[in-house]
């Protein structure tokens, strides 16, 4: 049985601070190490429904999240002349509560910073599992021992690479890339967005933070690209190359994307693994079970997984193997359903021909007439497929 209750968490995104929150409440001593110099606040809106919203309520964070919620309205599919071709109703995409990812990262950091040690600008360089703990070598040169190590360091997890092997084994590219940039609200949008399709690409623009700014959200088809994860300018160029020459407001938006100081770019890929733990190391959030943004569940799974993992670690009273097994057994149905939803959503999400775009608009006009409950049934089922137990 473990006697060392120190836990090193890699990653200060959504999953890492949420786990630190619960571990600190349940008698553990969490430390969070984050590669960036400060919390990374880029990204677009993330939403919560069902059990994950209940987790936020139990964290006493729901009132603040609701205060900062996006209150996003409908999304209009427009053609090159800015005419509305179809509408996606707000409740289809925004969950029960929706907030900008960066605002949530900030709220989680504020809620934990007094009780949790954060090491920004550092990362784990090496892990050595021993009988009663893990010897950790940091990139900064410092060495320390921890009882357990949790990788909550996203889709390209460093902990996963160190403890389980190269990411190519686990990352499954779904054929799309995603970029998000903070831009001025140059279309004058008011709590509703616009989405423009050209064959093989989508560009959506929607207002954020009470219409004072906007987000440009790019999805485009591409086979796995060879690019430097840290070279943001090169990533912006890749995006621009896929949209150059397009109509609608694209020529006004591309320069804003290129100049944006808040930019996120990644492949739309799922992480699928046979097991999420190896000895004293376990994975959480995108590192273990990234479903892609198209599931609408990534942040919900991250906060729910954090709650379940902390609960099982406390219950197991030092038997980390039993805790990791119970955590995984409880989370698997939620993860499996969410990943399946994302695979279905990805298929046909970005039509590659004009005919396909016309068909999608037609389908969306029909779908918008159906009762919301019917369309949302699979998402609601997935979002409630885990029990919080106490
Ligand atoms: C900047 C950013 C923007 C995002 N924008 C979107 C978006 O627009 N739409 C969307 O659906 N999803 C987005 N995501 C992913 C989304 O946050 C996750 O799908 C989900 O919330 C699960 O969160 P997570 O904490 O597991 O992973 P993440 O939110 O990805 O957090 C992982 C954290 O780990 C850090 N990290 C990475 N490698 C290391 C390392 N080796 N050592 C230490 N720290 C490390 C990262 O800097 C990051 O802070 C974004 C992620 C990031 C990091």
Automatic annotation (TrEMBL):
Q: Which InterPro entries match?
A: FAD-bd, FAD/NAD-bd_sf, FAD_aromatic-hydroxylase
Any single GO molecular-function term of the entry would be: FAD binding
Q: Where is the FAD-binding domain?
A: 6-333
Q: Name one Pfam family in it.
A: FAD_binding_3
Q: What is this protein called?
A: FAD-dependent oxidoreductase
The beginning of the lineage is: Bacteria, Pseudomonadati, Pseudomonadota, Alphaproteobacteria, Hyphomicrobiales
